[in-house]
Amino acid sequence: MKKVLLLGAGLVTKPLVNYLLDKPEIELTIATRTVSKAEALVNGHERGKAIQLNVDNDEELSALVKDADIAISLLPYTYHVKVANYCLEGNTNLITTSYVSPQMKALNDAASEKGLLFLNEIGLDPGIDHMSAMKIIDDVKKRGGKITSFESICGGLPAPEANDNPYGYKFSWSPRGVVMAGRNNAQYLKDGKVIQIDGKDLFNHHWYKEVDSLGTLEVYPNRDSLIYKDLYGLDDAKTIFRGTFRNVGWSETLAAISKMGYLDDTERPELKDKSFAEVTATLVNHGSKDGVREKTAEFLNIEENSKILDRLEWLGLFSDQKPVTDDPNYLDILASQMLEKMPYKEKERDMIVLQHQFVAEFPDGKVEDITSLLIDFGIPGGDTAMARTVSLPAAIATHLVLQNKIGLKGVKIPVYPEIYLPVLEELKRLGIQMKDTVKVRETAN
Fold it and tell me: In this predicted model, what pLDDT tens digit does every residue of 2-16 receive, in sequence order?
């Protein structure tokens, strides 16, 4: 019997738990701070166990990791290196869905020497994006071609029928991370030129893209795209771009919110017990909550009848309502209100959209425009698309490692055929599949 330790019992874990408990050779222990969440996931299964864990209890965490054949950390990413060090001590393999940090990368040699695999970035984005992109890139190279342009865009959105608020967005958990991502710097390569964007200007740098069956979506850059030149072996690419999908109107509104200062998480005790109108008035240098919409229009240099102001008003940022958060900073005041106003209703579906676009050139002059598209919907009353696409790749990889079907060692991400081929094949069996289309141009332009 193989022992799997799952650390964390958040909203994306259910599909992973169900997948692993469906394998008769696996015993699964779920350790989390709120044990009732783990018990609900195990649901009385004979090979499942739920235990309470304070992840700061080093002795208990170490013992749990040492007793497992493989640990899956779905904890906040700040804990992954701590878990990885205990995996080294306990000769335990590790799976995470998070980006590889420099501290995690530094454990590569130690993990390799012990014959361990620390597989990271095996979720959706990062995860399915890596695997589906590398499958096409490797295929083009095998056929003697080269990739001269690569664009990859991903987003989690409400399904079209659930898209019923002015922001075109909904949250199934705390939006703090989504809001904080709006402060990230970004850079990408466009026609051989490096484009750099300061975090404060991120949402001002957006454009529109038509997506099959979904119509027009917004796109804005996602962090540092340049690292993918080496990561994916895109030596010949003149364009390398990774971005985020949102519905139309999101970016211009978040740009205004950013300009106002609502993305600042500096602690400000003076905000306690203030209404939204008073908080907004402070940000737009207006001494009174009266006339705050007009003053916000002046501050943003936009018309008072702007749709941007309509969205801010719908969110309640001009109202006498008081924030529901106890954290006295602008970002948490905003995030808590977004969660209040933009949750998924019962049985509403979410949607994942992931699209790659490649230009591949071949020695005979032929050019292929390749589009690879995933549109996945949540199950009403069941698993969300986000939960399925994040946790199932991790579950599949866990099973493959336990079956000794992945021979790689050290700190890795899923850009290798021995990982991405079987994981993508199993995802296809589970109904999660990229749809590829190829348009051929006879000669390069």
Answer: 999 999 998 899 999
Residues 420, 377, 24, 49: is their CA dihedral positive or negative?
Answer: positive
Pairwise CA distance, residues 257 & 208, whole Å:
20
Integer Cα distance of 348 and 344 in angstroms: 6
Sign of CA dihedral 323, 325, 329, 335: negative
The CATH class for the domain spanning 128-248+346-383+434-441 reads alpha beta
Q: Cα separation of 157 and 139, whole Å?
A: 30
Instruction: Looking at the structure, give the CATH architecture of the domain made up of residues 254-341.
Output: Orthogonal Bundle (1.10)
Q: How far is CA 283 from the centre of its chain?
A: 30
As given in the structure block, the two tokens for residue 115 are 């014959």
Please state at what angle helix 128-142 crosses helix 417-429, rounded to 10 degrees.
Answer: 120
Catalytic site residue from 125, 129, 332, 376: 125
In the predicted structure, residue 445 carries a pLDDT above the cut 70: no
pLDDT of residue 79: 94
Two tokens, residue 380: 């009403």
333 Cα distance to chain centroid:
22
**What count of other Cβ atoms lies within 10 Å of the Cβ of residue 315?**
21
The pLDDT score that the predictor gives to residue 3 is 97
Four-way CATH pick for 2-126+387-429: 3.30.420.40, 2.40.30.40, 3.40.50.720, 3.30.450.20: 3.40.50.720
Among 280, 319, 324, smallest CA distance to 300 is for 280
pLDDT in tens, 41-79: 999 999 999 999 999 999 999 999 999 999 999 998 899
Domain edges within the chain:
2-126+387-429, 128-248+346-383+434-441, 254-341
**C-alpha–C-alpha distance, residues 320 and 278, integer Å:** 8
Mean pLDDT for 117-123 is 98
Partners of residue 154 on adjacent β-strands:
244, 354
125 catalytic per annotation: yes
Pairing state between β 350-361 and 146-158? antiparallel
Among 215, 138, 148, 60, smallest CA distance to 369 is for 148
Give dist(CA 318, CA 337) in Å, integer.
12
Instruction: Give mean pLDDT, residues 233-258.
Output: 97
| Tens-place pLDDT, residues 126-135 | 999 999 999 9
Sign of CA dihedral 105, 106, 107, 113: positive
